[in-house]
Amino acid sequence: MxxxxxxxxxxxRSAADNVAVSVVIPCxxxxxxxxxxxxxxxxxxxxxxxxxxxxDGSTDPGTAEILNKLDRPGTRVIRQANxxxxxxxxxGISSSRGRYILCLDADDAIAPDYLGxxxxxxxxxxxxxxxxxxxxxFGDENFVWRKPDYNFFRLLWENHxxxxxxxxxxxxxxxxxxxxxxxxxxxxxxxxxxxxxxxxGRLLPEPLFRYRRHGLTMLERSRAKRDELLKKIREAHxxxxxxxxxxxxxxxxxxxxxxxxxxxxxxxxxxxxxxxKYFPLRLxxxxxxxxxxxxxx
Length: 297
Fold this sequence. Notes:
Layout: E1 19-27, H1 31-42, E2 49-56, H2 61-68, E3 75-80, H3 85-94, E4 98-103, E5 109-110, H4 114-124, E6 128-139, E7 143-145, H5 152-155, E8 166-168, H6 169-175, H7 186-196, E9 200-213, H8 218-221, H9 226-236, H10 238-241, H11 244-253, H12 258-275, H13 281-292
């Protein structure tokens, strides 16, 4: 099951629809990477785009110099006091003009054909809320991270949608954007919120998002507060997590059998253990190597 019914009503599009896709790139002290992110977007086969860099109160002089001198076509910089990733994305989207949005971290990149393919899929099916691809991990590690087909029931328990999904601006308006109080897991809550409002996703099964691994990732830095963020997500969506009848309906609607659900629950428990602050990071990376069955450089 890939798509659900389109929500009723219309979002305010007075500032949108002037370009096909707006790419929002929050940047906090990542000047050494941000030009690579921008140039990957400018290399896109889809030309009807704009790029918005959100300087989230950078304190690094090198980043400030790069952003002050930035001169790339279709690219502009907006600035705000440091408020975190979620607030920076919301600020960029609020000033955007695109029918569709891609939030790209400043240290990542995309393949040239990603935006064009995502755009055609979304244009062809107005019921879809967003499209996401496999990941090509690069930097300290090098492997293809294959994502599963979209399944809203399973999304409630584990995030299988990468940050760099292309979504409808209308859907972002409808759910109120990203939640700043959930920085670290704000994108997961955003996909859940979209699904709760009837905006579902679809996998584009190609490694079109280039995800950089360097040092500690944001996920690893947030391991200590992960349990607290999970509680906030489940509290914000009590109607999904605490209604046993609703959960059974969703399990049936998304074709999740009791047996596969049990196996999935076990895999989630193992992954949650690996993500906990008590699990050694080196051991976690070693197990990732075994899982993907290839050498990670």
